């Protein structure tokens, strides 16, 4: 006898929303990759459930993002994306002074550009 798997059907609107969120997340990654200068080194972007971390990147250019990240704020997404892409830029996984300085500089530059002039 075959086992029957019963899954709870998700409404189409929820599926569409998930797809749109993933597309937005991937578009943000490509925009940051261009800005940081690693667009040519980024080979693959995967969005999938992850239990223990927000993202990972390999030296071969495979970026994997936790699917849950799509539902977080733009600031949180930006922090995770920049963090991983700086690893790719430096071609290592170490968190040294240069790494920290680059992450802070990219995020600070974005914050200053994103703040609108009150005048």
The biggest beta sheet reads: 3 strands, mixed
Task: Please mark out the parts with pLDDT under 50 across 5 or more consecutive residues, or reply none.
Answer: 1-7
Strand order of the largest sheet: 1-3-2
Q: Helical stretch count? A: 3
Overall average pLDDT: 85
Structure description:
By secondary structure, this protein is mostly helical. The chain has 3 helices and 3 strands, in the order αβββαα. It has helices spanning 12-36, 74-90, 97-114, and strands at residues 44-48, 55-57, 62-66. A 3-stranded mixed beta sheet has the order 1-3-2, covered by helices on one side. A hairpin with a 4-residue loop joins strand 2 and strand 3. Helix 1 (12-36) crosses helix 2 and helix 2 (74-90) packs across helix 3. The chain is globular and about 45 Å long. It starts with 11 loop residues before the first helix and ends in a 5-residue tail after the last helix. Residues 1-7 have low confidence and may be disordered.
Write the layout of secondary structure elements.
Blueprint: H1 12-36, E1 44-48, E2 55-57, E3 62-66, H2 74-90, H3 97-114
Parallel strand pairs: 1-3
Antiparallel strand pairs: 2-3
Helix pairs in contact: 1-2, 2-3
Attribute tags:
119 residues; mainly alpha; 3-stranded mixed β-sheet; globular
Question: TL;DR of this structure?
Answer:
The chain is mainly α and 119 residues long.
